[in-house]
Amino acid sequence: MHTTEPKQASERAYLSLSEAADQLGCTRRFLEKRIDDGEIARFAPSKRLVRIKRTELDRWIESYTARKGGVVA
């Protein structure tokens, strides 16, 4: 039987809001506001389970950085 270790957050295709906020270095509320404003797409198979696709987070970082002139605040 072959067992695999769980992937680290940095290796997974989808992140929880807390994991994504940790990676961005922001609060979960900041991230929720970006989702509410339509800046970041979310995947929510249920009300309590919300995930953000890593590629979507990367896309938003590039967009945010470009809008801020290359500076991430």
Count of discrete structural domains: 1
The CATH architecture assignment turns out to be: Orthogonal Bundle
Give the uncertain stretches in residue-range form: none
- Please report which band the strand proportion falls in: under 5%, 5-15%, 15-25%, 25-35%, 35-45% or over 45%: 5-15%
> What best-fitting shape do the alpha-carbon axes yield?
globular
- What is the arithmetic mean of pLDDT? 86
H and E string: EHHEH
Task: Give the proportion of residues in helices.
Answer: 40-55%
- Summing up helix and strand content along with how strands pair, one would put the structural category as mainly alpha
**Main CATH class:** Mainly Alpha
Q: Report the strand count.
A: 2
What is the CA-atom radius of gyration, in angstroms? 14 Å
Description of the structure:
It is a single chain. The chain starts with 13 loop residues before the first strand and ends in a 6-residue tail after the last helix. The protein has one domain: Orthogonal Bundle (Arc Repressor Mutant, subunit A), CATH 1.10.10. It is mainly alpha-helical and 73 residues long. 42% of the residues lie in helices and 8% in strands. The longest helix is centred in the C-terminal third of the chain and has 14 residues, at 54-67. It contains 3 helices and 2 strands, in the order E-H-H-E-H.
